[in-house]
Amino acid sequence: MTSTGASAIRSGETRTAIIVETLVVFLAMLGFTWAAKSADLIGAGSIALWGGIILATLLMKRRGAKWSDYGFSLPKGAKQWSISIALTAAVIVTVFASMFLVIEPLTSFLGLEEAPTASDPFKFFLGKPLVFLGFIVVVVWGGAALGEELFLRGYLLNRLGDFFGHNPLGWTMALIIHAIIFGSMHVYQGFAGMIGTGIIGFIIGLYYLVGGRRLFPVIIAHGVINTVGLTAYYFSDGAIT
């Protein structure tokens, strides 16, 4: 599906080693999630993601891999910037179009609705502009946009690609499984929300792969999409979710 970028799998690394490392990182992230939620911390998911990213970074260093191997670098030169801007715009347009043309009709056909409590984690900043802005900067951009893209698209998708093989079938399997995991991470939104975020994760992951495994465009697109959604939620006093 893509051949751009260095392989982050070291010579002689076994599938067992790949899956063990990935499970250790993912289970550690779930542990961080439990700890952060037990402490009733705001942005518990973002805190857990960064815990997972730090652990992943340490394990990557042991096998000689860097985040730049997964596409975490700024574009260089006019051509790369043009490609990145085009990819960012394409992701944003495709995701918003999928919400209205795919996700809403599909969940409606299946008789599914978003969980009534799906927006509860965001009610605390309603009517508080400075708190809202702080949440957008720290949690939306630092946690969801940067954190989720590093962890889900950068680390997890590539480790699954290492496991299944760097070929069209292998990347397709990796893309589907990573999208299911991404959707499952949004269980608080109910089954409809999990399906929706899973589809969005698939779309973002697909653009990441076909775009040459560039993280910059999907990070910016993710941040813009979430910012637009939460801004609509804020200014509608929670009516638009």
Automatic annotation (TrEMBL):
This is CPBP family intramembrane glutamic endopeptidase. Its EC number is 3.4.-.-. It comes from the Bacteria. One of its GO terms (molecular function) is hydrolase activity. Coiled coil: none annotated. Keywords: Hydrolase, Membrane, Transmembrane, Transmembrane helix. InterPro entries: CAAX_protease, Rce1/LyrA-like_dom. The chain crosses the membrane at residues 16-35, 41-60, 81-103, 130-152, 164-185, 191-210, 215-235. Residues 135-228 form the CAAX prenyl protease 2/Lysostaphin resistance protein A-like domain. The lineage of its organism: Bacteria, Pseudomonadati, Pseudomonadota, Alphaproteobacteria, Parvularculales. It comes from Hyphococcus aureus.
